[in-house]
Design brief:
The protein is α+β, with helices and mostly antiparallel strands and 102 residues long. It is 32% helix and 22% strand. The protein has two helices and four strands. Strand 2 (68-75) and strand 3 (78-81) form a beta hairpin.
Length: 102
């Protein structure tokens, strides 16, 4: 089964929870308790393959967050950033370990 959605509001809550669980578990398996700083490519590349096997057809994206080169995944326009916690939100608060959103 391949999941295709138009926006995050169309993603069933059950699938969103499953996607978050898969990404969090995968991240923990690679990073353990290490900082995610500078691990975005390694974690995202490996997670892309794993999620694709699980039926989530995502792609690796290379971009910039503030002035830093960064990698994340996209699933039909939804961002899956498994190392988001290396950045701060615009208000200065911490990002979650794994960000799934738009």
């Amino acid at each position: 089964m391949t999941l295709h959605i138009e926006n995050i509001n169309e993603l069933p809550k059950r699938k969103l929870k499953e996607l978050n669980r898969l990404a969090m578990g995968f991240r923990q398996g690679i990073l353990s308790n290490k900082s995610s700083k500078a691990w975005c490519f390694a974690v995202s590349t490996a997670l892309e393959g794993y999620l694709n096997i699980c039926g989530y057809q995502c792609i690796l994206v290379r971009g910039t967050v503030r002035e830093w080169e960064h990698y994340w995944l996209e699933l039909d326009g939804i961002i899956i950033d498994s190392t988001a916690d290396q950045f701060k939100k615009p208000d200065g608060s911490n990002m979650p370990s794994v960000y799934i959103g738009v």
